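If your schedule permits, I should be very grateful for your opinion on a structural question. I would ask you to consider whether the tokens describe a fold that such a sequence might reasonably adopt. Thank you for your consideration; the sequence and its tokens are set out here.
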Amino acid sequence: MKPSLLEKLKLDLRALRLKDMADILEIALEDAHQEKQGHIQFLDRLVQQQRRAMAERSLDRRVKQAKFPRKMTFEYFDWGFQPGLNVEYVKDLIQLDFVQNRQAVLILGKTGTGKTHIASALGIKACEAGYRVLFFRLQNLLSLLYATLADDTTDEVIAGIARSHLLIIDHVDFIRTKHDYPSLLLDLISVCNQRVAMIFTTKISLEQWGEALGNPSVTHAIVDRILHHAKVINIRPGGRSYRTEGPHAPKMEETQELKS
């Protein structure tokens, strides 16, 4: 049986990869008839639906490619919880000028104070603005780079990372280090410096980075590059633990159940 003109139009829209226009075509036609819409108004609704759906899929793709540990956004961040946080400064960063200017952001604070949440939320904001973002824990990033030494693909992998607009390196801390780790990190930072915006989170002082990575002289060169025109969020000592006391922390009953 020959398809109706409406069915043929929907098939043609899908063939042109305009699935979202096809999905709402019948509803849009009915609404246009009831509301006595003009041709341009009717067509505009179809086009806007397609654009919104494409933008949502594009955002979902960027968020998945970034590989955030969890989808932590500012929508679920309690701004009044952490007294050691300069809220106005963080909200200025949400405008993403640091991404446009390819600057580094250093977030310091003790364990659980919300560093990863802030870094991830800034990363998701960047995804929403159309930027390509990559998220790594330092240990995982260095393990990845170390593995490239076996097949001599280090430069290729670093170049791939440097094609992102924002690189987030979380948990700069005392790690299971190897002899090549500091030089590999220096190579990456040198390539990304002033080409890619970067966010680092750390619970240790910058003076301890050399000890953590195992090579103070190379680490000094890394810190020097990071701090050049860097923005710093210092969640002051004495700040409460966002992880254990914050709005999304496990309740006491849940904690007791986990221990039992």
About this structure: The first strand starts at residue 104 and ends at 108. The chain has two domains: 5-65, 67-245. Residues 246-260 have pLDDT under 50 and may be disordered. The radius of gyration is 24 Å.
